[in-house]
């Protein structure tokens, strides 16, 4: 019969650690199901570094339960002051796929690292999507031709409306009737109502009808 590891024996002295690990597994399972199929979620039992992997949900790395702790896990075991959260760091799966990882260290009531919850996101599909979107949105300039379907000054008009809304901690579409009247006075005083198709731009940005814009301007 194989001998139990010292850390497993020590864990029996702290049954609350087992309860903590059980709760972490539930969280990991939920995260794995939510972010499948792009994200692998791994629970590491740092009380047993030689067999640290306690559970894997949505397995992308090909690792198995019972495999040893990673270098990051060993660093936490060696240093209780090691950062608890290391987010969005570059990682690589065994087959070369690029990944983005986040590791959260879990301490017990004594301040000792007993577990880690790690998320590994496969970037392959996202990189493909990024390339496709980049190709779709690329613009080939021919003969230096550039055209704008936006009325002259419309961007500045929208920016002024956004600025007005921000001062009131709200959005343009959430402005109340009285606030719209104040806005229209400011726009008129600043000369923005002279912008071509100003009423259409304002109405669209506020999410109201042109009639409402005219009423607010009175």
Describe the structure.
By secondary structure, this protein is α+β, with helices and mostly antiparallel strands. It contains eight helices and five strands; from the N terminus they run ααββαβββααααα. A five-stranded antiparallel β-sheet has the order 2-1-5-4-3, with helices on both faces. The longest helix is centred in the N-terminal third of the chain and has 20 residues, at 15-34. The protein is elongated and about 75 Å long. The termini are far apart.
Essential attributes:
218 residues, alpha+beta, 5-stranded antiparallel sheet, 8 helices, 43% helix, elongated, disordered N terminus
Could you give the count of β-strands? 5
Q: Going across the biggest sheet, name each strand in turn.
A: 2-1-5-4-3
Question: What composes the largest sheet?
Answer: 5 strands, antiparallel
Distance between the termini: 90 Å
Task: Compute the number of helices.
Answer: 8
Strand content: 15-25%
Order of helices and strands: HHEEHEEEHHHHH
Instruction: Show unreliable segments.
Output: 1-11
- Overall shape: elongated
What's the Cα radius of gyration?
29 Å
Q: Which whole number gives the mean pLDDT?
A: 87
Q: Based on helices, strands and strand pairing, what is the structural class?
A: alpha+beta
The percentage helix is 40-55%
């Amino acid at each position: 019969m194989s001998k139990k590891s010292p850390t497993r024996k020590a864990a029996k002295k702290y049954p609350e650690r087992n309860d903590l690990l059980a709760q972490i597994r539930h969280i990991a399972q939920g995260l794995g199901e939510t972010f499948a199929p792009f994200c692998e979620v791994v629970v590491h039992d740092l009380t047993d570094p030689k067999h640290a992997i306690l559970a894997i949900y949505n397995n992308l790395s090909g690792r198995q339960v019972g495999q040893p702790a990673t270098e990051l896990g060993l660093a936490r075991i060696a240093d209780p002051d090691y950062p608890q959260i290391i987010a969005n760091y570059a990682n690589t799966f065994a087959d070369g796929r690029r990944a983005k990882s986040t590791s959260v260290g879990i301490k017990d009531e004594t301040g000792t690292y007993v577990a880690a919850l790690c998320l590994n996101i496969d970037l392959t599909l996202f990189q493909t999507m990024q390339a496709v979107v980049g190709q779709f949105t690329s613009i080939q300039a021919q003969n230096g031709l550039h055209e704008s379907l936006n009325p002259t000054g419309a961007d500045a008009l929208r920016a002024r409306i956004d600025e007005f809304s921000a001062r009131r901690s709200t959005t343009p579409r959430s402005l109340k009737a009285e606030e719209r009247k104040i806005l229209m006075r400011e726009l008129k005083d600043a000369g923005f109502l002279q912008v071509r198709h100003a009423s259409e731009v304002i109405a669209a940005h506020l999410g109201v009808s042109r009639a409402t814009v005219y009423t607010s301007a009175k």
